[in-house]
Design goal:
alpha/beta; 35% helix; TIM Barrel; 13 helices
């Protein structure tokens, strides 16, 4: 797309002020930051690679992403972490910063080599698995605290899981699916918050999906506990009423009830929820073609996040564009100590409606619950470290 004089003027204004610049037609803002993505490499490059994942991120307006550690091998020591860092250096088109694991191979039995990995990772997480043992989670928190690093937790109590594939609610009951209870998420958050109070670690809760989770975090913040959290675009805009028996609607945690969605929206309005992350989790088309029951958990989200949120939250008057950029850029960068750079910026065309088409994704993953949805807010230019990394 030709970058016209109006866009050039807005870009110059952004460079001069560092603040978002909006006209009737365009938005120029700091490069978006996603602290929760899965790029699948090393180990699962048939699903996604660091190259394709970072290209997808640039296509969505992101200039910084943090990659989760459920890889093969897991980044649980420097040898394993260096495998990933080498690929990032060679192939990433934007800033890609990995997580290190909390425990060896994410098995929850012994701590990873957090000391040596600390300066190379954004934080520590056993994402994809909740750390089940209280003692081990406390040890991880104390170590992270000593290293001045964040613990980012996938909160899931395995003792409450029953092999479910969607929310334990109306749709599951009506269609004969085993449900995933809200308690499997919020009970572990409840446990972790007690440990955070004891240890003083900087604690971040990944992808919250329930009203109880939001309330627990709200109350913890009021008590002065060092906690932040994220939710994802699908939890803010979809409910169990939107489900279809297709793999593109299966993610963990699942989309839940209307009450849960409304509580999460209230959470972003009142500041309980600090960030919106995509949990971009690509799988092969073959894997995701097995319906709700047979498909693996995970959807893609980097290329749809901004337009979905802009269309459903900003244009409907639920939050301002300034608040959205805070959730997508400023807050996650501040929490994870990631720099905000004036030579990282993104341009969105915000006036023209278009239809999301997964065939246009640069990600290898195509499973999106938003496929076919009409939205506003198309990314037309992404600049990272002063270099054009995507241009429509």
């Amino acid at each position: 797309m030709y970058i016209n004089k109006e866009v050039e003027s807005l870009i110059q204004e952004f460079k001069n002020t560092g603040k978002i610049c909006v006209s009737e037609n365009y938005l120029v803002c700091p490069g978006l930051c996603d602290v929760h993505v899965h790029f699948r490499e090393p180990g699962f490059s048939y699903k996604e690679t660091i190259k394709t994942g970072s290209m997808a991120a640039a296509h969505g307006g992101y200039t910084t992403v943090c990659t989760m550690p459920n890889l093969k091998p897991c980044p649980d020591n420097m040898k394993h972490l260096n495998e990933q860092l080498d690929i990032i250096k060679k192939d990433a088109v934007i800033d890609v910063i990995p997580y290190g694991t909390i425990t060896v191979n994410e098995e929850g039995k012994e701590l990873s080599d957090m000391d040596n990995m600390a300066k190379f990772v954004c934080a520590f997480s056993d994402d994809g698995r909740g750390v089940q043992e209280d003692k081990m989670m406390k040890e991880g928190m104390l170590k992270a605290k000593s290293l001045n690093k964040v613990i980012a937790a996938h909160c899931e109590d395995n003792s409450l899981l029953k092999g479910g594939c969607i929310h334990e609610g109306i749709y599951a009951e009506q269609h004969g699916f085993i449900g995933i209870s809200s308690a499997s998420e919020y009970k572990q958050i409840e446990r972790d918050l007690k440990l955070v109070e004891e240890t003083g670690v900087a604690y971040h809760v990944c992808h919250i999906s329930t009203k109880e989770s939001a309330e627990l975090i709200r109350n913890a913040k009021l008590r002065g506990i060092n906690v932040t959290c994220e939710t994802a675009p699908h939890y803010l805009t979809l409910t169990e009423n939107d489900l279809q028996d297709e793999g593109r609607f299966k993610m963990n945690p699942p989309v839940r009830s209307i009450e849960d969605r409304d509580a999460l929206i209230q959470g972003i309005i009142d500041g309980t929820i600090d960030a919106i992350a995509t949990d971009h989790a690509p799988h092969s088309q073959e894997e995701k073609a097995k319906g709700l029951k047979g498909s693996p958990f995970g959807i893609v989200g980097l290329e749809t996040a901004f337009p979905i949120l802009y269309t459903e939250l900003v244009l409907k008057g639920i939050i301002t564009i300034e608040k959205l950029i805070e959730l997508l850029t400023t807050n996650p960068r501040n929490r994870f100590n990631l720099p905000i750079k004036k030579d990282d910026y993104t341009v969105f065309e915000i006036k023209t409606k278009y239809k999301i088409d997964s065939k246009d994704f640069l990600s290898m993953g195509k499973a999106s619950p938003f496929d076919g949805k009409e939205v506003y807010g198309k990314c037309i230019l992404t600049v990272c470290n002063g270099k054009e990394v995507y241009k429509a």
